[in-house]
Amino acid sequence: MSMSMMKKEEEQEERWSKGLPEHILQLIPQRLCISDYQLFRQVCPNWRAAVDIGIATKTCPPAPQLPWLLFRRSYDYLHAFYIINQYSCVRDPKFFPSINIADYPPEPPNLEDESFDGPLEMPTASLTCLGSIGSWLIVAAHQQCQNDNSSTVVNFFLNPVSRARVMLPSQSTLNCSFSGSTTLLFKKIVASSPPAPTTGLQKGDCLVAGLVHPGILAFCRPNDTSWTRIDSILGEPKFIDIEIFDGKLYAITKAGNNEFLMVFDHFDIGSEDANVTRANRMPICPVPYFTDLEWRYPCLAKDSASKELFMVLRQRNIKEGFKVYKTDGKIDRQHGIKWEPVTDLGDRILFLSDKSTKVINDKTIGKNCIYFAFTCKGGCDGGFGVYSLKDSSITQLSDLPEACSSTISGANSQTLWFTPYPY
To answer: Which residue spans within 221-377 are E strands per DSSP?
Structure first.
């Protein structure tokens, strides 16, 4: 092809891409799934600018979508799966591309650099997802130090679509005797609300709580300088799961042979630049177990829309299904929290995994069911499937690779649900 013909084609392509009005350009990506949304933005500078303006003004979201499943086996890379129908998932290889650890830049990418428009430059094998809130992951990453070639663990919020980050305090501020610069301390981290990366966080907007491996709770707010430990008066309890709901931190707790729910509130703040200084413990609340003590593997999930907190129980054998309870969180000083059994979720779906839980309203793939994705941990079987509260049946999620089997185990294997979104 001659140079003149190539130039003519480029001019025609430029006229075509610039010929669409901006409001039309912003309508197109709103009909695309998140993967196609990202590809649309990369077609040409004009299309990218139109989408970026829509993102900045929050007027150009992708099409509504269900939560995605993030999965990692041991020290493998993170893999992202999206639901295509009621019982089937498909991996998106572009969402978390496999990147060699040696390619990890010591500094995060410059998000203001318009030339930076490639995939997330992060070796996902070095990322450990500890939780999610909205479109944000809460992660730990091993960061290489330039001076002495050593590494340390950093914690932060990460939006994998926009690549925006909001830092959390270093885990080294926990002052735990077992801590080390390269030892991952947190088992799970939850947040009361998503961060606000563009304007900075107001201290009262977002509370973050972490479950530390040996049974320690800690909390902070983004941009604090340190974590604050919650010291227990119960000796050495074992915290099983945590959730922040309606301004309170709920922790399923085991001390000896007793299991109960601890609730903390009044996370006081000192001066404007001070960290959270203390949390008050409220009356201990019983956990709603059946007389059959096999139902003793609980997890918490919150529905912010209905202002309800769910507790979901399962047995060691996940094929036995689930038991669901809910509460409005009101605490009677004498009797604790009132839990009600749930046999019908209505249009809601519960999404359960190792590191996060979600509650959504949806009628496109079914309702009144639980999507679960667990690896083998703590003597419990793992599994990937859909549990129906209507008839107590379990249907396996299909089209997952063989690596995603119910026999997956290991401290570094993990599953997590989250909803990718540009803001």
So the answer is: 228-230, 238-245, 248-255, 258-269, 276-281, 285-286, 297-303, 308-314, 322-327, 331-332, 336-337, 340-342, 348-353, 357-361, 369-374
DSSP, res 94:
T
Cα Rg of the chain (Å, integer) = 23
Sign of CA dihedral 182, 136, 241, 236: positive
**Dihedrals phi, psi of 178, to nearest 5 degrees:** -95, 0
Is residue 397 within 8 A of residue 385, CB to CB? The reply is: yes
Q: Is residue 174 within 8 Å of 137, Cβ to Cβ?
A: no
pLDDT at 22 over 70: yes
Return d(Cα 72, Cα 179) in angstroms, integer.
Answer: 24
Q: What is the mean pLDDT of residues 291-318?
A: 85
Q: Structure pTM? A: 0.82
What was the pLDDT predicted at 311? Answer: 92
324 close to 387: Cβ distance less than 8 angstroms: no
Q: What pLDDT does residue 119 have?
A: 42
Find how far residue 31's CA is from the centre of its chain.
25
**Do 377 and 409 form a contact (C-beta atoms < 8 A)?**
yes
Q: Which residues pair with 57 in a beta bridge?
A: none
- Could you tell me the maximum CA-CA distance found in the chain, to the nearest angstrom? 86
Contacts of 118 (CB under 8 A, 6+ apart): none
Task: Specify the pLDDT at position 125.
Answer: 46
pLDDT surpasses 50 at 276: no
